[in-house]
Prior knowledge:
By secondary structure, this protein is α+β, with helices and mostly antiparallel strands.
Amino acid sequence: MKFIVNQQSLAKALGVVSKGLASQASSAILSGVLIRAAEGTIELQTTNQTIHIKYRLAAMVEEEGAVVVSGKMLSNIVKELPDAAVEMTTDGNQLSLSCERSRFKLNTLAVDDFPEFPTYALERSVELPAEVLSVMEQRVSRAVSRDTSRPILTGILLTLSEGALRLVATDTFRMAVCDTQVEGAGLDGEFEMIVPSGAFHDVLTFAQGEGTILVGVTQNQVVFETGDVTYVSRRIEGTFPNYRAILPDSSNTQISCRVDALNSALRRMSAIASSHPSVTLDVDADGQLITISAKSPDAGEAVESLPATISGQNVTIILNYRYVFDCLTALKDVEDVAIELRSSREPALFKALGKVSYLYLLMPLRD
């Protein structure tokens, strides 16, 4: 095998497929990257047996062939090379790499031991704009559960019906819902699947908010295709919780306040509430004020009032300020947030409307 490729292109490709390297490989082959050269293209593959990533890029191929080499080592070398042509040649059990005045010889692994890239026939698929998906994923991903004993909650529910795209995530303490309208998605009827959150984030990072992403499903796989990247992950099986049943259909108190002002006030409260992550919100509809307070037996207490537009009843509610932070961070590009409350014992609902609408339901804490 012998080929010449641009250093910047190779470094980018290795950065993508490195996501598929096994962090604690039971077999050395799973820490390797397969490089296959043929007809003006090289293809890089990695797998940790849960995900499989393939990246194709143009190269000047002088001799076709394939090789497996340590992915981490190759990536570390290539990203430090100058922006120039990189030549790779196999020589027995070694891969020779040269770039300007740099020369390396790397030990290789057996190509036959590298797992085959999955073959698949998509049962259903949809093509969606990467820029919109990226915004939506960033907003809901903070509510994804980290509890692997409940795999359903570690995924993001994606639904598409009559051009309405929705992402939903929950860890049972809070829930985030994002909606938008999409056109030309290449799908008739309805589409629903639970996407592994880590895979979703990886693919959107690769896409960098450009172009489109094809999302498809097989019986036990979820497949993403974007640009030169193909990403295959195991599908999360099961039924997502009936989130619609817990969305309140009315409220007794409606609040509108600035995102940046509320965020700043909560950050000041966090100095007191760091060991006990709860803050109290006293909503005064008569005075058009929200008074935020935090207490700690070790640190002391803090109180701050914010002006807000309030209608309805006065109410007091206790919330986990870290979860409120997550909501406000997701809305960093939004000026105002609406908050709807029914009582101190029922969930708080944060809302922001726009091209991408956002709901964030947060369970209150007890006294």
